[in-house]
Structures are given as C-alpha cells and as structure tokens.
Design brief:
The complex is a heterodimer. By secondary structure, chain A is an alpha/beta fold. Chain A is 37% helix and 20% strand. In chain A, β20, α17 and β21 form a beta-alpha-beta unit. The longest helix of chain A is centred in the N-terminal third of the chain and has 21 residues. In chain B, α1 packs across α6. An eight-stranded mixed beta sheet of chain B has the order 2-1-3-4-6-5-8-7, sandwiched between helices. Chain B has a single domain, classed as Rossmann fold. The radius of gyration of chain B is 20 Å and the shape is globular. Helix content of chain B is 32%, strand content 15%. In chain B, β5, α6 and β6 form a beta-alpha-beta unit. Chain B starts with 29 loop residues before the first helix and ends in a 14-residue tail after the last helix. Chain B is of the alpha/beta class. Classes of the chains: A alpha/beta, B alpha/beta. β15 of chain A pairs parallel with β2 of chain B.
Chain lengths: 583, 293
C-alpha cells in the first residue's frame, strides 16, 4: 500500500550533486501539492566536503524530520560515516549505493539496523553511457530513486528542466537522459517495495511554494513595509541579507552590508529614527555585539526588528547546527533595565506571521523586537501552503501633530507608555533622542524620580503588547492531564509526539507560545490548568526556557524539565520517551 | 551637502540655532568655539532646523546635539557614524552631521571610520580633537602625544598617537579638512565648505581642553597656524600636497587639506535602484511566484 509519509536521505561528497538531487525531489513533490521539508548538512569545507540532505515528504503538514530514513541514497560510505546518526536507518530501510566499484560487506558504517535491501546501481557507468561524462551521476540516482519511491515522473522531469534551464538546452537534455537511464535501470532491476512508494494524488492538487525559513523572514519583512536593512554576514542568517540585496533595490529600499554588527544595528536605529522601517539579521555572536545598541534602541524608544537565527553556542559554537541557547540573552541581555519583545517562529510558514507581527509591535510600541528563529528553520527548504499575503497591513508609528504653539514632549507620560514619535523633517516637533536617561522633553537627567517614571513608562508598554500579541499553538485534547511546553522549532516534534501519543490512547497536550517575552501568563495559565504533569522541553543545556518561564510565572506543581545541548534536532521518539515517563 | 533641500526662505540668526540648554562645558573649552562656528555656518547656509540632524557618541564633544535646536541623537560611545549614515540613507533630504571627540571617533569608534570614508555617504563628520578624554576626567587618548602624562599614563605614554587626517586620506575620504576652535571665523568657512561638499566630509577641529591639558594650548596652536587658503602652493586636489601637510613639523595647517569629488553613496544607490526597478517590474505580491516549484 502506498504511503503518505516518506523519509529520504542522500549523502555524498561535494561534487556528487547531493543537494541538486534533493532540490529536485522537493520541487517535484511540491508540484503535486505534497508537503515536505529538506534539511541540508555540510562538512566544514567550502568546496568538496561531505554533504547530505534529509527529505521528509507527507500529505500532512510537516515540521520535523523523522528520526529514521525509509530510503538512503549513498554515493559513498566514507561521507556517510561523517553524518552517522543524522542518517539513521530503520528496520526494512532500502539503500541505493554506487555499485561500481562494489562496496565489500563490512565497510558500510550504517547507523541503525541493517537495511532490508541494498541496490548497487552502476551510477557512474550509466551516466557515462547516457551523456559521455560522469557529472550527471546524481540524475541517474534520481531516476532510480524516483522509480523506487513512485515519485511522479513528469513533475520530476519538469523540476530537472527548471534546475538546469540556465545552463542551456544541451545540459538539460543530458540530465534528462541520465535520469531516464536511472529510471530504466530501476525498472529492470529493482523489486517493488510498496512501503516506500509515495502515494500521489492524480486529482486537482493544492498549490505549494518552496522556500526556506530565511526566505520567509526576508519576504515577510518586505511585505511588512521594511525598506532598510543593514547587516553583517553570519551563518546561518546571511541568506536573509542576500535575498534582500536582490529585492530591496527593486522597491526603492536600501540594503547595506556593514563593517560589523554594531554598525548594522546602528544604521538600523538611525534609519528608523529618520522614519523608515528597518531591520537587521544575525546569529548568536552578532547578537552579543548588538546588545549595547539594543539597549540604546529601547531607551531612545526607536522601533527596530532584529532577527536572530540561532546556532550552536556559546562563542563561535557550532555555526552549522542549531540550538535554543540565545533565549536568555534576548530576554535579559544588556546592562540596565530595559524592555524588549521576543518572538519565535515555529516553522517556515510561521516566519511570515511573526515578521508581520514583529514590525507591527515595534512600530506601535517603539520598542526593539527580536525574532528568534534558528538554523533548523532558517535553512530548511519546505514545501508549504502559500502564505496569505492579504493579511499584511503595514502599521506605521503614531506621529504628533506639528503644532507651533505646543511644546513637543517626545517622551510624554502616557497611559500606554507610548508617546507619539516625530520624524526628522517634521517642523515644530523636533527632539533629541538619547541613550542617556532623559525627561519627557528628552533632556538628560540623573534624577531618580524621573528615572523611575521613565522606567515605568517604558515597561508599561509590555502590558499592551501582551494583549496585542499572545498567539499560542495548542495541540491535543483540552482535558489532557499531561502537557508539553516548548518553543520555536521544537513545535514539530511536539506536534508529532502529541499526535502519536493520543492515537495510542494517551491524552497529552502540547503548547507552543509564539511570544516568549512578554509572556501572556494568564492565557498560558488557562492552557496549563488541570495539568497533573507538565514537561518543559528545550535544546538548551542551561535550562534557559525554564528560567525565562520561572521569572514570569508560577509553574504548576508536577513540572519537570528535559533539556539538552542542541546540534541535533529534537527527535519525536526522544520526546515521546520523555513524556511516557510522566504517564 | 548638495543632496539636502533644506534652505529656509528667510534669514536665520546664528543664535536661533542654539537650544535652550546651557552647555555644561568648562569655561574656555574649545567646544564653545565649535558650537558658535556651527551656528554661524548654519546661518550662512540658511539650513532649516527640522531638516538637520546631529548625531554624536559619548564625550564632552558629544554633548553638542543637546545644544543645537535641530533633531539630534546623543547615542552610544563610538557609534555616531553608523547611526548618522543610517539616518541619511533613510532620508537623503536631511542634513546629517556626525560629531564626537578623538576618543569616541578614533579609539572605540575607529572601526567605523574607514568605511564611512570609503562609502562616501553625504554627511559631515566633525571630530573635536583635544588629545585627552575629558568627560571621564583625563585619561589617555589615541591622539595624545608621545610620552604625555595622563591619569592612565602616569609615567608617560608609551604609545605612538594616531593621526586622524592621515587615516582619512588613507581611507579614500573625499573631503579632509582641519580647523581650530580658537579661530571661529576661519572655522565657519571650513564648515560651510564641508557641509556643501557632496560626499563624506571629515573635519578635524583642534579643540583644546582647558581642564586636562591647559589653556596655554590655545596660544601654542595659534602661533603655529598656517592657513592653506593663503598658501598658493597647496592644491587640495593633489594628494601630494596633502601628504606634505601630514609631514609638517613647525606649522599646523588649517583649511581644506584634500578634496576630491567622486560620486557619493546615495547617487550611486539611486542609479542602482533605478536599474533594478526598471529591469524587474514585479509587484510585491508577485514575488511569491518565484517560490513556486
């Protein structure tokens, strides 16, 4: 019986074309209205190092990789061993490997049980026969894989054509020939394994778009009205700047690659003060450098959006893997008391919503908003339902009326904490912003009463924010007595685990808050009411999420915590194991 | 700045550019001279206050924005340049002036300086150099002379000072000038030229600190002043002339040391944006199509 959920892994060296093969598969399934996510993994070399990708295809929404692969395409086993447990097999997995030269039995460093079937395909020879060269090896492999897994033929050909179109008709043809050769070989030599044949509907398909989390952040920002970006390249966020480098100029926006991260956030602050919605994007090390500027934006009450695509920390850490260990820095980092907002997208689609909300909040409340993405979301390619662009209604800061008779108080005390903000160019409502503590007029002060009043003003904004943005994803039955609380990309594993456990008859609920600071405690309390056990899960060795929760609310008795270092995504079985301890 | 459309339709007196705040600088501080010269320059240029923005870092000199009636930003130490540049790029119609001292600009802030010069964004950067840290009470500065005794070089400085002018020239700055707070009349002319220059204008102003260096510095400098405007051999467009100024020993040349017009950042950006927009006319919503499989 054909399956609706399929997990494919591919591994090889830099020149093998692993990623192109992966892209072709993603594009193909998207054309048939299926969902999928692809995670890429690289060695440290710039060229020629080991590379692998993992693709999960499903008719349902996908936001996490499965723990094990159904099918593995291995161009060589030396590179496989460098990825090991990332490409774990399961009982009955099928392997396609390069058949010539033949790999002797003991040399396969497989992680997991022995595969059910190993197909030795003469990829190199077939490529040579079809095209005269060996470069299209990956297309031969794709053909064999496609036949094996029932990947739809014409969409796969269309994807191949699109991938190679820019290189000219001859290259496209060669690749199509190689693909066909692989497909024919599989047709003649492979036996049918229905458990890995993808179910593909022939009816009208739903539309899909293929994008990474970083794409979604960048496009989401542009849609929200951002027209100034300043940033510094850093793994894994550079793609955001690179995308905006293409599109900002087309919409008369400005994008500057700065000399360092301090300059990046500095330019953003200057641009925002001058009236343009502005943002930057970075990762952990860059955020550390930007921290001083974050405090400046907060006390000077200038709207800014900072995207932090987390990576393994601390310090240089693990640039190519992800973690959830920047949370405390975003919530509490920086000297002095100053308010800011921290929001975390849970998957690629969510990046759109979060960016829209981030600009809305930063403009309305004149406060820094940090969007905490991570490398797993930022770099994964996903086939998703096209985002609803009509929901975008760019919000712009509230400006004062230029009245020559009234003295303009930029930092006037208001009930909401938000005081109208003028733009340079507006007459009569001039002011001087400052990092130094100031009174309502903006004049420097060291008076403690004024300082207290100003802190109250700035922190008062958090109340309004809590009411304006407090979206939380909740899975599972309301009456469940066991709950899981997590954030960000953990959502995928939580959603899957909750589904699986409930299907087994074990009532569990999962909660994923989108705004981590200020936390809508009342709302969260509502979801936690009645829970006998609560499991808090995070990819942070030092329990950052637990601490951030504790400082904002009372956790129910029966709360336990599971946290570990990142660099490996939260696994579904891993999570289920933890939850089962509570049942 | 050729890019700013900010001329008031009636004369504005220099005093009208001053804010209500009384400067906290020590009596006799060079920065008073700079403030006065700026106001006079603004008046001569008839700049509109609402179209003018002064951005500073931290230090005695960085208090300047508070004493001017324009938009201003007294930001964090060493970071006036990126903030000023961000503001100018966001709204090119503004007159943007970045200001600070030698510590703000050439110690912590020095990383931004080469890029400000080479980007050639149309702002004016004035550095009030007093060769000491005044606000924090007398520590060593990157421009402090060799062997000078300060609160953090009690046995004499063993660090060679940096020359901001030399650095500006080395970093492709398109306008480099030096002024003296003790000669306000001359400084006004320098500031006017700097503000009018289409591109990044760097003006280093010798602004003696009467408290930590002593007011005798005013006289010392005055005695060695050499006005480049009156020097027929000085050619501001010739780099060799500028290098000669760097190596002078007995005199201190003031005026425009080097000036080279090259396209400034915004005009290059404007051209780039036009080309990008013309080549690709898709609407914002249509970008979604580029993600279709």
């Amino acid at each position: 019986m054909a399956v609706q959920d399929l997990n494919i892994g591919m591994v090889g060296s830099g020149g093998d074309g692993v990623m192109v093969g992966g892209e072709a598969v993603v594009s193909t399934v998207a054309r048939k209205g299926l969902n999928c996510i692809m995670l890429k993994s690289f060695g440290p070399q710039i060229r020629g190092g080991e590379s692998s990708c993992k693709i999960r295809i499903s008719s349902e929404k996908v936001s996490t990789q499965a723990d094990e692969l159904d099918v593995l395409l291995a161009y060589n086993w030396k590179d496989y061993s460098r990825f090991g447990s990332e490409l774990m097999l399961k009982p009955g997995s099928v392997v396609i490997e390069e058949g010539e030269p033949e790999t002797p039995e003991p040399e396969r460093p497989i992680v997991g049980p022995d595969p059910g079937t190993i197909y030795r395909v003469p990829l190199t020879r077939l490529a040579k026969e079809a095209t005269g060269g060996t470069r299209a090896r990956n297309m031969v492999a794709l053909g064999a894989l496609g036949k094996l897994c029932n990947l739809p033929d014409q969409p796969l050909r269309d994807s191949i054509e699109k991938l190679f179109k820019a290189k000219g008709g001859e290259v496209v043809q060669d690749n199509q020939k190689a693909y066909q050769a692989g497909r024919d070989y599989a047709g003649r030599n492979f036996s049918r394994t229905e458990e890995i044949e993808l179910e593909v509907s022939e009816e009208r398909v739903e539309e899909r778009v293929v994008m990474t989390g970083n794409d979604a952040v960048a496009y989401g920002a542009l849609l929200a009205g951002c027209r100034f970006f300043a940033g510094y390249p850093i793994t894994p966020s550079s793609e955001i700047m690179e995308w905006l480098s293409v599109y900002m100029p087309r919409f008369r926006g400005k994008m500057v690659q700065t000399e360092d991260e301090m300059a990046a956030l500095g330019m953003v602050i200057g641009a925002s003060m001058a009236g343009v919605k502005a943002m930057t994007a970075t990762s952990g090390p860059g955020l550390s450098l930007m921290t001083e500027m974050m405090g400046l934006a907060s006390i000077a009450e200038i709207p800014v959006v900072i995207v932090n695509v987390q990576r393994g920390g601390p310090s240089t850490g693990i640039p190519t893997k992800s973690e959830q260990s920047d949370l405390m820095h975003t919530v509490y980092g920086g000297h002095g008391d100053f308010p800011r907002v921290v929001m975390a997208p849970a998957d690629v689609s969510d990046c759109f919503d979060v960016m829209r909300e981030a600009f809305f909040i930063s403009e309305k409340y004149q406060i820094p908003v940090i969007v905490l993405s991570d490398g797993f979301i930022g770099n994964r390619k996903a086939s998703i339902v096209p985002p609803d662009i009509s929901k975008y209604r760019p919000y712009y800061r509230n400006r004062p009326e230029p009245d020559p008779k009234k003295e303009y108080l930029r930092f006037a005390m208001t009930d909401s904490g938000v005081s109208p903000m003028s733009n340079p160019g507006m007459p009569h409502v001039l002011y001087r912003a400052a990092g130094i503590e100031h009174d309502e007029k903006g004049h420097p002060t060291s008076d403690f009463k004024v300082h207290q009043m100003m802190n109250e003003k700035r922190f008062r904004k958090l109340e309004g924010i809590r009411h304006d943005v407090n979206f939380m994803r909740v899975y599972g039955p309301e009456q469940a007595k066991v709950g899981v609380l997590a954030w960000g990309s953990s959502k995928g594993a939580v959603r899957n685990a909750v589904k699986t456990l409930n299907e087994r008859g074990q009532e569990v609920k999962g909660i994923i808050p989108q705004v981590l600071f200020p936390l809508a405690v009342d709302k969260l309390d509502g979801y936690l009411k009645g829970l006998k056990r609560l499991l808090i899960v995070e990819l942070s060795y030092s329990k950052q999420f637990l601490n951030v929760l504790k400082t904002q609310m009372e956790l129910p008795p029966g709360t336990v915590h599971y946290g570990r270092s990142g660099a490996q995504p939260l696994g579904v079985h891993e999570l289920i194991e933890q939850v089962e301890k509570l049942l | 700045m050729k890019t700013a459309s900010h001329v008031a339709d009636h004369p504005v007196k220099p005093a009208e550019y001053k804010s209500s705040l009384k400067p906290v600088w020590c009596p006799g501080c060079g920065d008073y001279g700079v403030l006065n010269a700026l106001c006079q320059a603004f008046s001569r240029l008839r700049l509109k206050v609402e179209d003018t923005m002064i951005v500073s870092g931290i230090g005695c000199s960085s208090r300047l924005p508070g004493y001017l009636r324009s938009y201003g930003f007294n930001a964090v130490h060493g970071r006036a340049l990126p903030i000023a540049i961000g503001a100018k790029l966001a709204n090119p119609k503004l007159n943007v002036i970045a200001a600070g001292g030698d510590g703000d600009g050439f110690s912590i802030g020095i990383g931004h300086f080469p890029h400000a010069c080479r980007r050639n964004v149309d702002i004016t950067y004035i550095v009030m150099d007093n060769q000491i840290y005044g606000l924090t009470k007398g520590q060593l500065s990157p421009t402090s002379p060799d062997q000078v005794i300060t609160s953090t070089s009690r046995y004499g400085s063993i660090e060679t000072p940096i020359d901001p002018i030399r650095m500006a020239l080395g970093c492709e700055a398109s306008f480099v000038a030096r002024g003296f707070a003790g000669d306000v009349k001359h400084l006004v002319e320098v500031l006017i030229r700097a503000i009018q220059h289409p591109g990044f204008s760097f003006v280093k102003i010798l602004s003696p600190c009467v408290t930590y260096v002593g007011k005798q510095q005013f006289l010392e400098i005055k005695q060695r002043l050499h006005y480049l405007e009156q020097d027929p051999e000085h050619d501001p467009e010739d780099i060799v002339s500028a290098v000669k100024v760097l190596h002078e020993k007995d005199v201190i040349s003031v005026g425009v040391i080097h000036r080279l017009e090259r396209p400034h950042y915004q005009e290059k950006l404007k051209k780039l944006n036009k080309i990008a927009a013309r080549k690709h006319r898709e609407k914002l919503e249509e970008i979604l199509d580029t993600f279709r499989p």
